[in-house]
Amino acid sequence: MPSESGAISRDEVAHLARLARLAVTETELDTFAGQLDVILGSVARVGEVAAEDIPPTSHAVPLENVFRPDELRPGLSQEQALSGAPAAEEGRFRVPRILGEEA
Amino acid sequence: MSLTRLTAAELAEKIASREVSAVEAAQAHLDRIAEVDGEVHAFLHVGTEAALANAALVDEQVAAGTALGPLAGVPLALKDVFTTADMPTTCGSKILEGWRPPYDATVTARLRAAGITILGKTNMDEFAMGSSTEHSAYGPTHNPWDLSRIPGGSGGGSAAALAAFEAPLAIGTDTGGSIRQPAAVTGTVGVKPTYGGVSRYGLVACASSLDQGGPCARTVLDAALLHEVIAGHDPLDSTSIDRPVPSVVEAARIGAQGDLSGLRVGVVKELGGEGYQPGVRASFDAALQRLEKLGAEVVEVSCPHFEYAMAAYYLILPSEVSSNLARFDAMRYGLRVDEGASAEEVMAATREAGFGPEVKRRIILGTYALSSGYYDAYYGQAQKVRTLISRDFSAAFAKADVLVSPTAPTTAFPLGEKVDDPLAMYLNDLATIPTNLAGVAGMSVPSGLAEEDGLPVGLQIMAPALGEAVMYRVGAAFEASRTADEGALVAPEVAR
Amino acid sequence: MTAPALVDYADVVARYEPTLGLEVHVELSTNTKMFCGCATTFGAEPNTQVCPTCLGLPGSLPVVNRTAVESAIRIGLALNCSIAPWGRFARKNYFYPDMPKNFQTSQYDEPICVDGYMDVTLDDGEVVRVGIERAHMEEDTGKSLHVGGATGRIHGADYSLLDYNRAGVPLIEIVTRMIPGTGERAPEVARAYVTQLRDLIKSLGVSDVRMDQGSMRCDVNLSLSPAGSGVLGTRTETKNVNSLRSVERAVRYEMSRQAGVLDAGGEIVQETRHFEEQSGTTRAGRRKETSEDYRYFPEPDLVPIAPSESWVEELRGTLPEKPWERRARLQAEWGISDEELRDLVNAGAIDLISDTVAAGAPAGEARSWWVAYLAQQANARGVELAELPITPGQVARVIALVAAGDLNNKLARQVVDGVLAGEGEPDEVVESRGLTVVSDDGALIAAVDEALAAQPDVADKIRAGKVQAAGAIVGAVMKATRGQADAKRVRELIIERVGS
């Protein structure tokens, strides 16, 4: 069901939700598609600004070359590391079976 | 006078002089929380034992004559977005329900080192996305001025705790106005420091390039005292500025003497136009007159690209959010639902169940804006607009020492009014967003009550990067003058 | 669907032209990880080298390891790359349980090293220039252990266990340009490139480059085009190629496989394939439902890196002699043949010999010790030569003691045995085991006289001019002195005594 303004369709929202690992419901898809369409219509205004020769800003404060010496710093114990784990086994995080290929 | 009505500066002095013990101060605020928080719901977690233990330690140190920081023993409410090793950290989200971080944020650590008593963790819109706290998974906070209204957001819990006298100090975070807008609608003071001024280590990220922790209080001086505790370089945050912290306490004390002569105050034309509630507009006009009366020269400046700030913000923020919140995947911590399925299914099901609608909306929006086919038109273009907004600020600060505007377009609106209309909700941050995009400093100080509804209005003061001293000076002068004429803003006693 | 038959290699190269590309990941041997202060030691207990940052805990932030940046720059300079004067890290967004943040902090369109090359020498001396497109910094992922199902494989597993000790270890990814025109030598070129790259990086001291431990990993990109067509074919990317031999085999196999597909009228699918060490074949990875969009954007939590010219030049000054240039120099200095040199390289003896020479030993002696007695010892213990518990300095000392006549060869071997057994420095072993050569002529003369008296017939032969018969007497004297005599001196004394 493509949206009226054509900015973002329901299918596209479904695709984006999959990319973002969100198992959204059908009802949500309807709501989000409509809302995102309105929001996108509004934020698309950035395109009105003539900014071809303007450098982009990725960082609010212009810092460069911030480094740390290659020195050990105490980290977490295994117990601390696993303290929040939904499941753990043999000192490792236990997770459900992985379908995807290893990257 | 009740201990909960004192300012942090007053309370600190009484604790240091042993007129009041830190334990008494902590207990008074814990009692107040027990009394009113059922209605206000500023807190998600109250750490009674740890608070009293800290207070007892401060009392011992005071008795032993140990040199302590200027806020030792003063209670504080910490936004639930900073990690605390001794308390849960939920960010207002179900996905982190019950999570106890194994480490303290740098801000948390600095508060502890200063002897400040952390009372508990305050409510917020989920992952700091919202302007009303209605997007908290744990229910909204209520504005102490009118419990049927929003306390602002995302840091509504911290602001409400101050307004309800549950704490004299609080910490917030400001990504697009989350400290300043709640301050405005609760009649309190809130400061967004220069980006890089306060460490983000342990601040659970909303949008990394915009987030900034900052102090919240009922007076400008209290905010300044807290500012100096939490600010300063942190080697654990690459974006932390390695420069001396501006002397904001001194600036606030000088400002309170009420002389702003020689200072130029710029009124941003693009932030002074339509869309403001009449009482907000009137309060702002009165504020300008007051600033002139204090000796400041009021000039008009133009920031032509500010009108695109919101559009740029709602591309940059969701993009960073979509990436920052990817880690909440049920593998290492937090919620896990649908045990037994594949990891991929568990991730998707957990994120679906654990995130609220506003978070999901922004994740999807950000995923879209960063997609290869759209990157240049959306994210890339927004970053360029960001450059133009920074240039607007630079030009404006060449003409004025500080810039001013109303903090928020309206006073506190009724709970439920905008919760299903994202775009209407986003408009609350119209005036506060540009400072986050440019990384400059901003604060909100109470400017009085709107005539039509009797609710607080905030004046926003903005300063260049690391220009906090002049901002505090103007804020303190304005506050002293206004309070002398109209009295401090005190929320009506919360029903008991 | 059965796969088309493989095409015989000679037939492949007669009709197709391969284009090769190699992506090599190198784990740096810094003390700490790329973005946090956790240790990078291989083989530690699971999840004991982790902190909020490399576990991706909410609120944690990265800070760049300066040494890792220096290592990246040095690798770039050694590969004749330009060093970017300004660049940012980027986030590569995708979900995978071994990646704590569900994005990898990497470099995307602003790599720190660009446009380099390496001249790769093949066995017969032919030189192929391999263009380096880029070398960039990124972080490693954690490790998954798949439980249940068949033999720890991901498919059919019941669940997985994750260890994040490796997550955040600094990686440098080195990407070649497409290498055309290698023809039948493509597998050889691939292997030679990876070998030479390994040696180069090792010489910089920035990585262990152990393919068996995963500190160097190789992906092979390969495509075929009909000979003379000039049309670039579709490429496959083969991962998990984890030994030098496998690099060669993977290229060869992909060439035969792709030719088979093309010959059968099929199309090569652009895909990721996995190399199977056992069979020497490649298999297709699971096809993804949607094409991956990594949604790269500049990492907001890290600030740009802008290496100054002076910093880069300072690092250029630390580059050692290229290993292949050094080898050529040593070959000349030691006066050895190509074959002997290759044996030394294969035995991993070059550095050891060179260091032994640097410690004062003559090259011939140094070489002989390392490739003979010490090589046997390493072999017997099942370790690499370099892993033997003896230093080049200690070997040089033993050689010096022999030269001074304090030890003979047999005693020298006993001293080395002592050092290997952990008994201390060579001089301490000599002392504690009492291994000095008997140089007191008086004692030796007595032993010689005794031996001559015991074997009068031999004494007569010597007297008659059959000097080689003295060997029997030497043997007897050595036995009598429990090997502690200087055989040369004994021989001189025998001649002296029979003549007197």
Automatic annotation (TrEMBL), chain A:
Keywords for the protein's UniProt record, in alphabetical order: ATP-binding, Ligase, Nucleotide-binding, Protein biosynthesis, Transferase
InterPro entries given in the database record: Asp/Glu-ADT_sf_sub_c (IPR036113), GatC (IPR003837)
Stretches the record annotates as Disordered: 76-103
GO aspect biological process, one term: regulation of translational fidelity
Protein family: Belongs to the GatC family.
Species of origin: Pseudonocardia oroxyli
Protein's recorded name: Aspartyl/glutamyl-tRNA(Asn/Gln) amidotransferase subunit C
EC number per UniProt: 6.3.5.-
Role played: Allows the formation of correctly charged Asn-tRNA(Asn) or Gln-tRNA(Gln) through the transamidation of misacylated Asp-tRNA(Asn) or Glu-tRNA(Gln) in organisms which lack either or both of asparaginyl-tRNA or glutaminyl-tRNA synthetases. The reaction takes place in the presence of glutamine and ATP through an activated phospho-Asp-tRNA(Asn) or phospho-Glu-tRNA(Gln).
Signal peptide: none
The reaction(s) this protein catalyses: L-glutamyl-tRNA(Gln) + L-glutamine + ATP + H2O = L-glutaminyl-tRNA(Gln) + L-glutamate + ADP + phosphate + H(+); L-aspartyl-tRNA(Asn) + L-glutamine + ATP + H2O = L-asparaginyl-tRNA(Asn) + L-glutamate + ADP + phosphate + 2 H(+)
Gene: gatC
GO MF, any single term: ATP binding
Assembly and binders: Heterotrimer of A, B and C subunits.
From TrEMBL, chain B:
Domain (Amidase) ranges: 25-469
One BP term from GO: translation
Residues of the active site: K79 (charge relay system), S154 (charge relay system), S178 (acyl-ester intermediate)
Transmembrane spans: none
An example Gene Ontology CC term for this record: glutamyl-tRNA(Gln) amidotransferase complex
EC number: 6.3.5.7
MF term (GO), any: ATP binding
Enzyme class: ligase
Chain segments annotated as coiled-coil in the UniProt record: none
Classification via InterPro entries: Amidase, Amidase_CS, Amidase_dom, AS_sf, GatA
Keywords (A to Z) from UniProt: ATP-binding, Ligase, Nucleotide-binding, Protein biosynthesis, Transferase
Reactions it catalyzes: L-glutamyl-tRNA(Gln) + L-glutamine + ATP + H2O = L-glutaminyl-tRNA(Gln) + L-glutamate + ADP + phosphate + H(+)
Family: Belongs to the amidase family. GatA subfamily.
Binding partners and assembly: Heterotrimer of A, B and C subunits.
Classification via PANTHER family: GLUTAMYL-TRNA(GLN) AMIDOTRANSFERASE SUBUNIT A (PTHR11895:SF151), TRANSAMIDASE (PTHR11895)
Function: Allows the formation of correctly charged Gln-tRNA(Gln) through the transamidation of misacylated Glu-tRNA(Gln) in organisms which lack glutaminyl-tRNA synthetase. The reaction takes place in the presence of glutamine and ATP through an activated gamma-phospho-Glu-tRNA(Gln).
Record-given protein name: Glutamyl-tRNA(Gln) amidotransferase subunit A
Organism listed in the record: Pseudonocardia oroxyli
TrEMBL record, chain C:
Quaternary structure, from the entry: Heterotrimer of A, B and C subunits.
Main function: Allows the formation of correctly charged Asn-tRNA(Asn) or Gln-tRNA(Gln) through the transamidation of misacylated Asp-tRNA(Asn) or Glu-tRNA(Gln) in organisms which lack either or both of asparaginyl-tRNA or glutaminyl-tRNA synthetases. The reaction takes place in the presence of glutamine and ATP through an activated phospho-Asp-tRNA(Asn) or phospho-Glu-tRNA(Gln).
Keywords carried by this UniProt record: ATP-binding, Ligase, Nucleotide-binding, Protein biosynthesis, Transferase
Gene Ontology BP terms: glutaminyl-tRNAGln biosynthesis via transamidation; translation
EC number: 6.3.5.-
Family named by the database record: Belongs to the GatB/GatE family. GatB subfamily.
Residue stretches making up the Asn/Gln amidotransferase domain: 351-498
Matching InterPro entries: Asn/Gln-tRNA_amidoTrfase_suB/E (IPR017959), Asn/Gln-tRNA_Trfase_suB/E_cat (IPR006075), Asn/Gln_amidotransferase (IPR018027), Asn/Gln_tRNA_amidoTrase-B-like (IPR003789), GatB (IPR004413), GatB_Yqey_C_2 (IPR023168), Gln_synth/guanido_kin_cat_dom (IPR014746)
HAMAP family cross-referenced by the UniProt entry: GatB
Domain of life: Bacteria
Keyword Nucleotide-binding among record annotations: yes
Record gene name: gatB
Pfam families: GatB_N (PF02934), GatB_Yqey (PF02637)
Catalytic activity: L-aspartyl-tRNA(Asn) + L-glutamine + ATP + H2O = L-asparaginyl-tRNA(Asn) + L-glutamate + ADP + phosphate + 2 H(+); L-glutamyl-tRNA(Gln) + L-glutamine + ATP + H2O = L-glutaminyl-tRNA(Gln) + L-glutamate + ADP + phosphate + H(+)
Protein name stated in the entry: Aspartyl/glutamyl-tRNA(Asn/Gln) amidotransferase subunit B
GO molecular function: asparaginyl-tRNA synthase (glutamine-hydrolyzing) activity; ATP binding; glutaminyl-tRNA synthase (glutamine-hydrolyzing) activity; transferase activity
